[in-house]
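LOG
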Amino acid sequence: MKKIYFFCFISILLSFLGFYLIENMFTINPDVWSGNGNFGILIMLLFSPIFILSYFLTYKMSREISYNKLKRKISVVILTLALISCTLLILPIVNYTSELIIALGGTPSDPDSKIYRFGWFNQYTNSIYFNVYTFLLTHIIAVIIGILSVIRIKP
Protein backbone atom coordinates (compact mmCIF):
# COMPACT_ATOMS: atom_id res chain seq x y z
CA MET A 1 0.00 0.00 0.00
CA LYS A 2 2.80 2.41 0.76
CA LYS A 3 4.33 1.73 -2.65
CA ILE A 4 1.32 3.19 -4.42
CA TYR A 5 1.57 6.36 -2.32
CA PHE A 6 5.22 6.71 -3.23
CA PHE A 7 4.62 6.09 -6.95
CA CYS A 8 1.64 8.43 -6.92
CA PHE A 9 3.69 11.17 -5.27
CA ILE A 10 6.56 10.74 -7.76
CA SER A 11 4.20 10.67 -10.76
CA ILE A 12 2.39 13.80 -9.58
CA LEU A 13 5.74 15.51 -9.04
CA LEU A 14 6.96 14.55 -12.53
CA SER A 15 3.61 15.54 -14.02
CA PHE A 16 3.88 18.94 -12.37
CA LEU A 17 7.41 19.25 -13.75
CA GLY A 18 6.02 18.60 -17.24
CA PHE A 19 3.32 21.24 -16.79
CA TYR A 20 5.92 23.68 -15.48
CA LEU A 21 8.29 23.08 -18.41
CA ILE A 22 5.55 23.47 -20.99
CA GLU A 23 4.18 26.63 -19.37
CA ASN A 24 7.43 28.40 -18.55
CA MET A 25 10.05 27.06 -20.94
CA PHE A 26 8.14 26.21 -24.12
CA THR A 27 5.52 28.96 -24.26
CA ILE A 28 6.66 32.09 -26.07
CA ASN A 29 5.85 35.42 -24.45
CA PRO A 30 3.36 37.57 -26.38
CA ASP A 31 5.91 40.38 -26.77
CA VAL A 32 8.36 38.11 -28.66
CA TRP A 33 8.03 37.02 -32.29
CA SER A 34 8.56 33.31 -32.87
CA GLY A 35 8.83 31.56 -36.17
CA ASN A 36 10.40 28.31 -35.03
CA GLY A 37 7.26 26.31 -34.39
CA ASN A 38 5.90 24.74 -31.25
CA PHE A 39 8.68 22.80 -29.54
CA GLY A 40 6.38 22.32 -26.56
CA ILE A 41 4.69 19.52 -28.50
CA LEU A 42 7.82 17.41 -28.07
CA ILE A 43 7.71 17.84 -24.29
CA MET A 44 3.98 17.12 -24.31
CA LEU A 45 4.61 13.87 -26.16
CA LEU A 46 7.46 12.90 -23.85
CA PHE A 47 5.45 13.63 -20.71
CA SER A 48 2.12 12.18 -21.94
CA PRO A 49 2.73 8.75 -20.38
CA ILE A 50 3.62 10.44 -17.09
CA PHE A 51 0.49 12.61 -17.24
CA ILE A 52 -1.68 9.54 -17.87
CA LEU A 53 0.06 7.54 -15.12
CA SER A 54 -0.35 10.45 -12.71
CA TYR A 55 -4.09 10.72 -13.40
CA PHE A 56 -4.54 6.95 -13.10
CA LEU A 57 -2.63 6.71 -9.82
CA THR A 58 -4.49 9.72 -8.40
CA TYR A 59 -7.76 8.03 -9.34
CA LYS A 60 -6.65 4.72 -7.88
CA MET A 61 -5.35 6.23 -4.66
CA SER A 62 -8.48 8.32 -4.08
CA ARG A 63 -10.59 5.24 -4.78
CA GLU A 64 -8.67 3.09 -2.30
CA ILE A 65 -8.65 5.72 0.43
CA SER A 66 -12.34 6.44 -0.05
CA TYR A 67 -13.27 2.74 -0.04
CA ASN A 68 -11.07 1.55 2.83
CA LYS A 69 -10.70 4.47 5.19
CA LEU A 70 -13.52 6.96 4.76
CA LYS A 71 -17.16 6.68 5.67
CA ARG A 72 -19.71 7.52 3.04
CA LYS A 73 -20.62 10.90 4.60
CA ILE A 74 -16.98 12.00 4.67
CA SER A 75 -16.58 10.90 1.05
CA VAL A 76 -19.60 13.00 0.10
CA VAL A 77 -18.13 16.03 1.92
CA ILE A 78 -14.78 15.59 0.15
CA LEU A 79 -16.61 15.17 -3.15
CA THR A 80 -18.57 18.38 -2.53
CA LEU A 81 -15.41 20.30 -1.67
CA ALA A 82 -13.69 18.93 -4.78
CA LEU A 83 -16.59 20.03 -6.98
CA ILE A 84 -16.51 23.50 -5.42
CA SER A 85 -12.74 23.62 -6.00
CA CYS A 86 -13.22 22.72 -9.66
CA THR A 87 -15.77 25.48 -10.05
CA LEU A 88 -13.48 27.99 -8.39
CA LEU A 89 -10.50 26.89 -10.51
CA ILE A 90 -12.40 27.63 -13.71
CA LEU A 91 -12.45 31.35 -12.85
CA PRO A 92 -8.65 31.88 -12.93
CA ILE A 93 -8.36 29.66 -16.01
CA VAL A 94 -10.86 31.83 -17.91
CA ASN A 95 -9.22 35.01 -16.61
CA TYR A 96 -5.74 33.83 -17.62
CA THR A 97 -6.96 32.84 -21.08
CA SER A 98 -8.66 36.21 -21.58
CA GLU A 99 -5.55 38.11 -20.53
CA LEU A 100 -3.37 36.06 -22.89
CA ILE A 101 -5.73 36.64 -25.82
CA ILE A 102 -5.64 40.38 -25.13
CA ALA A 103 -1.83 40.32 -24.89
CA LEU A 104 -1.64 38.46 -28.21
CA GLY A 105 -3.83 41.03 -29.92
CA GLY A 106 -6.82 38.76 -30.46
CA THR A 107 -7.87 35.30 -31.50
CA PRO A 108 -6.36 33.23 -34.34
CA SER A 109 -9.05 34.54 -36.69
CA ASP A 110 -8.17 38.20 -36.02
CA PRO A 111 -5.75 39.54 -38.70
CA ASP A 112 -4.13 41.89 -36.15
CA SER A 113 -3.37 39.05 -33.76
CA LYS A 114 0.09 37.61 -33.26
CA ILE A 115 -1.41 34.12 -33.60
CA TYR A 116 -3.34 34.87 -36.79
CA ARG A 117 -3.76 31.60 -38.76
CA PHE A 118 -1.82 29.60 -36.12
CA GLY A 119 -4.89 28.04 -34.53
CA TRP A 120 -5.45 27.72 -30.82
CA PHE A 121 -2.64 25.24 -30.20
CA ASN A 122 0.65 27.00 -30.87
CA GLN A 123 3.87 28.17 -29.19
CA TYR A 124 2.11 31.23 -27.74
CA THR A 125 -0.88 29.40 -26.26
CA ASN A 126 0.70 26.33 -24.64
CA SER A 127 0.21 27.95 -21.25
CA ILE A 128 -3.57 28.03 -21.76
CA TYR A 129 -3.64 24.24 -21.60
CA PHE A 130 -0.65 23.55 -19.35
CA ASN A 131 -0.54 25.70 -16.22
CA VAL A 132 -0.92 25.29 -12.47
CA TYR A 133 -4.68 25.78 -12.61
CA THR A 134 -5.26 23.10 -15.24
CA PHE A 135 -2.86 20.79 -13.39
CA LEU A 136 -4.91 21.13 -10.21
CA LEU A 137 -8.22 20.93 -12.06
CA THR A 138 -7.36 17.71 -13.88
CA HIS A 139 -6.06 16.01 -10.73
CA ILE A 140 -9.11 17.07 -8.73
CA ILE A 141 -11.29 15.62 -11.48
CA ALA A 142 -9.36 12.34 -11.13
CA VAL A 143 -10.10 12.40 -7.38
CA ILE A 144 -13.78 13.11 -8.06
CA ILE A 145 -14.02 10.17 -10.45
CA GLY A 146 -12.28 7.91 -7.93
CA ILE A 147 -14.65 8.89 -5.12
CA LEU A 148 -17.73 8.60 -7.36
CA SER A 149 -16.72 5.10 -8.41
CA VAL A 150 -16.62 4.06 -4.75
CA ILE A 151 -19.79 5.84 -3.62
CA ARG A 152 -21.78 3.79 -6.11
CA ILE A 153 -20.36 0.55 -4.65
CA LYS A 154 -20.29 1.39 -0.96
CA PRO A 155 -23.45 0.57 1.03
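LOG (cont.) second protein
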Amino acid sequence: MDSEDREFLLQFLDSMADDLSFIFEAGARDMPPGTVVQSLWPAWNAVQQRGDIGRLIAAVRSADYDERLDEAGLSGPELAFKREGWRNARQAGLQAPSLRPLKRWLKWIDVILGSLIAVIGAGEGLKELKEGFEAELEDIEEGAQADGS
Protein backbone atom coordinates (compact mmCIF):
# COMPACT_ATOMS: atom_id res chain seq x y z
CA MET A 1 0.00 0.00 0.00
CA ASP A 2 1.44 3.35 -0.96
CA SER A 3 1.07 6.57 0.97
CA GLU A 4 -1.59 7.96 -1.41
CA ASP A 5 -3.81 4.91 -0.85
CA ARG A 6 -3.34 5.09 2.92
CA GLU A 7 -4.09 8.82 2.89
CA PHE A 8 -7.32 8.24 0.97
CA LEU A 9 -8.48 5.50 3.37
CA LEU A 10 -7.76 7.78 6.31
CA GLN A 11 -9.64 10.63 4.63
CA PHE A 12 -12.56 8.31 3.87
CA LEU A 13 -12.73 7.16 7.50
CA ASP A 14 -12.18 10.66 8.86
CA SER A 15 -15.17 11.96 6.88
CA MET A 16 -17.36 8.99 7.85
CA ALA A 17 -19.03 10.52 10.93
CA ASP A 18 -19.94 13.74 9.14
CA ASP A 19 -21.01 11.90 6.00
CA LEU A 20 -23.26 9.46 7.84
CA SER A 21 -24.73 12.22 10.00
CA PHE A 22 -25.57 14.15 6.82
CA ILE A 23 -27.08 11.06 5.15
CA PHE A 24 -29.09 10.12 8.25
CA GLU A 25 -30.45 13.63 8.64
CA ALA A 26 -31.32 14.05 4.96
CA GLY A 27 -32.82 10.58 4.65
CA ALA A 28 -34.80 10.84 7.89
CA ARG A 29 -36.76 13.76 6.43
CA ASP A 30 -38.45 11.28 4.08
CA MET A 31 -39.34 8.85 6.86
CA PRO A 32 -42.77 9.02 8.44
CA PRO A 33 -42.99 9.69 12.18
CA GLY A 34 -43.09 6.58 14.32
CA THR A 35 -40.58 4.67 12.20
CA VAL A 36 -37.05 3.76 13.17
CA VAL A 37 -36.10 7.44 13.09
CA GLN A 38 -36.64 7.76 16.85
CA SER A 39 -34.11 5.02 17.54
CA LEU A 40 -31.63 6.13 14.89
CA TRP A 41 -29.95 8.97 16.77
CA PRO A 42 -29.39 7.09 20.05
CA ALA A 43 -27.98 4.16 18.05
CA TRP A 44 -25.71 6.50 16.05
CA ASN A 45 -24.49 8.10 19.28
CA ALA A 46 -23.73 4.65 20.73
CA VAL A 47 -21.73 3.67 17.63
CA GLN A 48 -19.77 6.92 17.80
CA GLN A 49 -19.09 6.53 21.52
CA ARG A 50 -17.84 2.98 20.98
CA GLY A 51 -15.16 4.44 18.71
CA ASP A 52 -15.54 2.11 15.71
CA ILE A 53 -14.27 4.73 13.28
CA GLY A 54 -11.31 5.60 15.49
CA ARG A 55 -10.28 1.94 15.73
CA LEU A 56 -10.42 1.60 11.95
CA ILE A 57 -8.35 4.78 11.53
CA ALA A 58 -5.74 3.54 14.02
CA ALA A 59 -5.48 0.20 12.21
CA VAL A 60 -5.04 1.78 8.76
CA ARG A 61 -2.51 4.26 10.13
CA SER A 62 -0.49 1.48 11.81
CA ALA A 63 0.36 -0.31 8.55
CA ASP A 64 -0.13 -3.65 10.35
CA TYR A 65 -2.86 -4.60 7.89
CA ASP A 66 -1.25 -3.42 4.64
CA GLU A 67 -0.88 -6.83 3.04
CA ARG A 68 -4.46 -7.81 3.87
CA LEU A 69 -5.77 -4.42 2.69
CA ASP A 70 -3.92 -4.97 -0.59
CA GLU A 71 -5.50 -8.42 -0.91
CA ALA A 72 -8.95 -6.92 -0.25
CA GLY A 73 -8.58 -4.50 -3.17
CA LEU A 74 -7.92 -1.46 -0.99
CA SER A 75 -4.85 -0.31 -2.86
CA GLY A 76 -3.67 0.41 -6.37
CA PRO A 77 -6.05 0.40 -9.34
CA GLU A 78 -8.82 -1.36 -7.41
CA LEU A 79 -8.85 1.34 -4.75
CA ALA A 80 -8.64 4.03 -7.46
CA PHE A 81 -11.89 2.68 -8.92
CA LYS A 82 -13.57 2.59 -5.50
CA ARG A 83 -12.26 6.06 -4.65
CA GLU A 84 -13.77 7.57 -7.81
CA GLY A 85 -17.08 5.77 -7.29
CA TRP A 86 -17.28 7.00 -3.71
CA ARG A 87 -16.28 10.58 -4.61
CA ASN A 88 -18.83 10.77 -7.43
CA ALA A 89 -21.60 9.33 -5.25
CA ARG A 90 -20.66 11.60 -2.35
CA GLN A 91 -20.72 14.69 -4.56
CA ALA A 92 -24.11 13.72 -6.00
CA GLY A 93 -25.49 13.08 -2.50
CA LEU A 94 -24.25 16.41 -1.17
CA GLN A 95 -25.65 18.30 -4.17
CA ALA A 96 -29.04 16.58 -4.28
CA PRO A 97 -29.75 14.80 -0.99
CA SER A 98 -32.75 12.76 -2.13
CA LEU A 99 -33.37 9.02 -1.84
CA ARG A 100 -31.57 7.78 -4.93
CA PRO A 101 -28.30 9.75 -4.48
CA LEU A 102 -28.23 8.98 -0.76
CA LYS A 103 -28.69 5.25 -1.40
CA ARG A 104 -25.94 5.31 -4.04
CA TRP A 105 -23.61 7.11 -1.61
CA LEU A 106 -24.36 4.52 1.09
CA LYS A 107 -23.61 1.68 -1.32
CA TRP A 108 -20.22 3.16 -2.22
CA ILE A 109 -19.47 3.68 1.47
CA ASP A 110 -20.24 0.01 2.00
CA VAL A 111 -17.95 -1.08 -0.85
CA ILE A 112 -14.97 0.42 0.98
CA LEU A 113 -16.15 0.09 4.58
CA GLY A 114 -17.12 -3.55 4.14
CA SER A 115 -13.61 -4.43 3.00
CA LEU A 116 -12.02 -2.43 5.82
CA ILE A 117 -14.18 -4.16 8.41
CA ALA A 118 -13.54 -7.61 6.94
CA VAL A 119 -9.79 -7.05 7.07
CA ILE A 120 -9.50 -5.21 10.38
CA GLY A 121 -12.31 -6.88 12.31
CA ALA A 122 -13.69 -3.74 13.92
CA GLY A 123 -16.69 -1.59 13.08
CA GLU A 124 -19.42 -4.17 12.50
CA GLY A 125 -21.92 -2.09 14.52
CA LEU A 126 -21.22 0.92 12.31
CA LYS A 127 -21.81 -1.14 9.18
CA GLU A 128 -25.02 -2.66 10.56
CA LEU A 129 -26.44 0.75 11.49
CA LYS A 130 -25.67 2.04 8.01
CA GLU A 131 -27.23 -1.03 6.40
CA GLY A 132 -30.35 -0.75 8.57
CA PHE A 133 -30.82 2.86 7.55
CA GLU A 134 -30.27 1.91 3.93
CA ALA A 135 -33.02 -0.75 4.26
CA GLU A 136 -35.39 1.95 5.51
CA LEU A 137 -34.54 4.18 2.54
CA GLU A 138 -35.21 1.28 0.19
CA ASP A 139 -38.58 0.68 1.84
CA ILE A 140 -39.52 4.35 1.41
CA GLU A 141 -38.47 4.27 -2.24
CA GLU A 142 -40.44 1.08 -2.90
CA GLY A 143 -43.50 2.61 -1.19
CA ALA A 144 -43.20 5.73 -3.33
CA GLN A 145 -42.94 3.63 -6.50
CA ALA A 146 -45.98 1.56 -5.48
CA ASP A 147 -47.94 4.78 -4.87
CA GLY A 148 -46.88 6.04 -8.30
CA SER A 149 -44.95 9.02 -6.96
